[in-house]
Amino acid sequence: MDNSLAAFRDGRSRQLRKLAEEHLQHDLNQSDRDIIKSAASKVSTHAQVGSLLGIGLGVYTAFRLRSMRLAYFNAFRAMEKPVEVKFADGRTQPIPDITDKLSPSKWSDAATYFFFSLGGLFLGGELGFFSGTASASRSIAQDPQAKERIEKAFKNYRIDVMKQEIQQLEGKNTSGQIFSS
């Protein structure tokens, strides 16, 4: 059960983190590590600011939607509505008043604020992540030699990760063992 959800799997991530730290220490010099750390902080900062702006935009649009819904309801309540229907054969049937069923409720307001905030959080966070990634890549690309060293270190890291995966797969020789983990 521990490995069934990604949130609970950390054995592999610890190995990868350790391998990445080794490559950071051995393949890059201090200025390259500083460039990577500043680029990572740019991505994080942009994502946080984007998320906050997205939540604010979501709350604002939810407020606007709620006020429009309330204005439409008040206009509907104020207009004259028919109270009965006359059929061709002469009989009349009363029409029930459904005004109270159309009124905005606390639950609909809460759902509106929740879902619009959630949508704003997602949209703002993703846009912030994209802008942060673009800013980080520009900061890494400023120094061509450092960019080359960082790319080489990343390529070596990926090679080592793939070697570990190959060793892990070669260690499991039956299909039952592969699918059980």
Tell me roughly what share of residues is in helical segments: over 70%
How many structural domains are formed by the residues? 1
Large-scale geometry: elongated
**Secondary structure tally: strands:** 2
The share of residues in extended strands comes to under 5%
> What structural class results from the helix and strand content?
mainly alpha
Mean of the pLDDT scores?
Answer: 86
Number of helices: 6
Cα-atom radius of gyration? 30 Å
Keywords: Membrane, Transmembrane, Transmembrane helix
Transmembrane segments: 43-63, 110-130
Characterization of the model:
Helix 1 packs antiparallel against helix 5. This protein has 6 helices and 2 strands. The chain has one domain (16-168). The chain is mainly alpha-helical. Strands 1-2 form a two-stranded antiparallel ribbon. The mean pLDDT is 86. The chain has helices at 11-27, 30-78, 99-102, 106-141, 144-171, 175-180, and strands at 84-86, 92-94. The N and C termini lie close together (10 Å). It is 77% helix and 3% strand. It is elongated and about 90 Å long.
Task: Give me some keywords for this one.
single chain; 181 residues; mainly alpha; two-stranded antiparallel ribbon; 6 helices; 2 strands; 77% helix; 3% strand
Explain briefly what this protein structure is.
With 181 residues, the chain is mainly alpha-helical.
How does the SSE layout of this entry go?
Layout: H1 11-27, H2 30-78, E1 84-86, E2 92-94, H3 99-102, H4 106-141, H5 144-171, H6 175-180
Antiparallel strand pairs: 1-2
Helix pairs in contact: 1-5, 2-4, 2-5
